[in-house]
């Protein structure tokens, strides 16, 4: 079967790769291992450039290095979006009254 693969780069990194020995994961090889009988036509890698924190000033340059490595994969395209961070304030819900029978 011919397939196209779509990867959420932030979820892949923060959910499965960060803090492991697999930070330099070859996503094309991973996809082929997951789908050994399929012909992978395209891999679309969706991400956003991070804004480095004061406590981690090299964060952006490390991300850019990884993205340059990904760009060497012939059938992989990197699609850039936006990552917005802001605190969301929610009112505290009052505890519900549970009635027991």
Key features?
three-stranded parallel beta sheet, 101 residues, extended, alpha/beta
In words, what does this structure look like?
This protein is α/β, with parallel strands linked by helices and about 100 residues long. The protein is about 30% helix and about 20% strand. The protein has helices spanning about 10-15, 25-35, 60-70, and strands at about 1-10, 40-45, 75-80. A three-stranded parallel sheet has the order 1-2-3. Strand 2 (about 40-45), helix 3 and strand 3 form a beta-alpha-beta unit. The longest helix has 12 residues, at about 60-70. It is extended, with a radius of gyration of 19 Å. The mean pLDDT is about 85.
